[in-house]
Each structure stands twice: as structure tokens, then as C-alpha cells.
């Protein structure tokens, strides 16, 4: 088994068809933001405390009233069957085994009911939603997620226009291959909706209010970067936000998420949990995000690399690597639990 997420990516690259690898790995336009998400973590340095000696660390976290054994969630990524024939079923099994929360993409290639079955009772599933041009479709998706037992609705707000991913254009990778579909839309949307992801270009706070009136599920907004939007989110009664730039796949040259996090966390001021995704590849990245105000992080591509390399066992290994690395980094920073990870443990590297 690979010893790091970077090794997982290298192996996945060897195994996946080149156009699928590019679809997963790629970002928008010049991929400035894609690279920045990872490199910004590299510009931060940890400043550890010593002589506080925690013999063991507690990595558990409670989010929206749900307990997870680690502060790393599975970010919603579409089309897992591109990486493995059993797709999201295996991801769910691995998440359940790790005690991690899985955010299922609206564009999953296995239906949400089957994902819930595969994960079993113990798995906390959150459902990611793109608000659809047709509200009846949006509402039907929400009901489907509720019936399947999903425990939160993650509304992605950074895809009102599709980012231009030039690798996909070069490779002619526009449609799902024959036999793969967005299964959650089957029976809900027309043929087009089952073949490709749609999202309303008119998305506004009114949609968020309407969703709150539609469902009792807690709503988490994914794709916020600006502190003023985070303040608006609190005002509109959402239960959490995920600082995200869609893994650099939408607005190129957007800030790295770890650089945007401190101002968002300050604006939210503990009123709701702030999560982050984008470029998390090591346990030290997790600790840096916690220090800068995140309650937890999520990982997108690493999960797909794990799936491509070794199915459920690969995803489990990716999660366990992150758990193990986070545990070690916490210990070396003198922290016994996540609450002890304070702002002073991170500094910008001198130029
Ligand atoms: C995504 N992402 C995404 N986000 C979302 O809200 N719904 C989706 O269906 C998808 N699909 C998707 C597919 C692929 C192949 C990738 C790489 C990403 C974005 C995802 O949730 C997350 O924001 C980023 O992947 C986080 O960055 P890292 O961890 O991949 O660097």
C-alpha cells in the first residue's frame, strides 16, 4: 500500500485512463488556484509547544450533533464509478469503517439509497445539492435524500457558471461514458439531468431561505470564500459553511482556501462550524486548518485516488493515513485534542 496520498495519486495516475485522471486532477484555466490550494499549506509553518506531553490524542469531533472519529470528511465528488466499477458503494463502506462523515455528491453514479445501504446504520451521510433550474426537481432531490436517511444538506454555491477545465476540452471529456449516470436524478429529472450535472445560474439567498422552509435538515453552504458571505450565511440561519473553491475547478486565481479561512472564521466567530476543503494532503495540513479556525476539513481527490488504487481498502488507507498523520502532528504540537489546537501554532514562513 502507498505510504502517502502523493504516492496514491502517482499509482492512480498509472491505473486510470488518461482522460479520467485529467478530469479528476485538473482545475480551471491556468490551474493557478488548483496549485495554490496545496502550496499555500506549504507556506505555513507549525510552531509546536512542548512539555505538555499528551500520551494519547483524541481526534473525535462533533459536527451538527453528529459524532465522527476524525476531523476529516469525505468531500462530495461526482462519478466515483469512473474510478472503480462499484464506485460510491465502496467509498461508503470505507467511510463507515473509518467513522468518517461522507458527503455524497448529487452527481453520484450509485443511487443514494444504495450508498446508504452499503454504508450501514453507523455511517453519517450528508447530501450535496446543486439547486436545480426547476424547483420541483430540487424539492424531489431533497425528499429523496431525506428518505434515504441523509442527515444534512450541503448546498454548493460556487457553480452558477461552469469553470472551464481545459484538460477536459483537450481530451474531449464532456459526457459520462456509456453505462454511467447521475443515479440520484433518475426518475426525477429528464434524460439530460441523468447524463450531466446542472445548477441554476440564478442562485441567490432566496433559494437558501426556500430550502430552509422546505426541509428540517441542517443546511451547510459549500463554496464560500468571502467573510461577508459567511456573515450572510449565519444571518440566513444555515448550520455550517465549507470554505471551498471547488478544488480549483471553478474560478481560477481565486484565493487558496487556507488563506481565505482565517477571515471567514473570524467573521463567523464560533456561531456555526466552519469547514475547509482544497489541497489537504497531510495531517499537518489538517492541524494548520484547525489552528486557523476550521472545525474539520474535507478531502476530495485523495478519496478518488484511493478508490482507483484499491477500492474500499484504498479509501480506508487514505483516511487512516490522514488520521495517523493528524494524530502524530497533534502529539508533536503538544495537543491532546482538537480544541487545544490554537492560532499561535501556525505562522507564515519567512520569505
Ligand atoms: C469535485 N467537487 C465537487 N463538489 C461538489 O459540491 N459537488 C460535486 O459533484 C463535485 N464533484 C467533483 C468532482 C471531482 C472529480 C473533483 C476533483 C471535485 C469539489 C469537491 O467537493 C472539493 O471541493 C474539492 O475536491 C476539494 O479539493 P481537493 O481535496 O480535491 O484538493
UniProtKB/TrEMBL annotation:
This is 4-hydroxymandelate oxidase. Its cofactor is FMN. FMN binds at residues 76-78, 105, 128, 130, 156, 222, 244, 277-281, 300-301. Glyoxylate binds at residues 165, 246, 249. Keywords: Flavoprotein, FMN, Oxidoreductase. One of its GO terms (cellular component) is cytoplasm. Belongs to the FMN-dependent alpha-hydroxy acid dehydrogenase family. The active site is at 246 (proton acceptor). Residues 1-351 form the FMN hydroxy acid dehydrogenase domain. GO terms for molecular function: FMN binding; oxidoreductase activity.
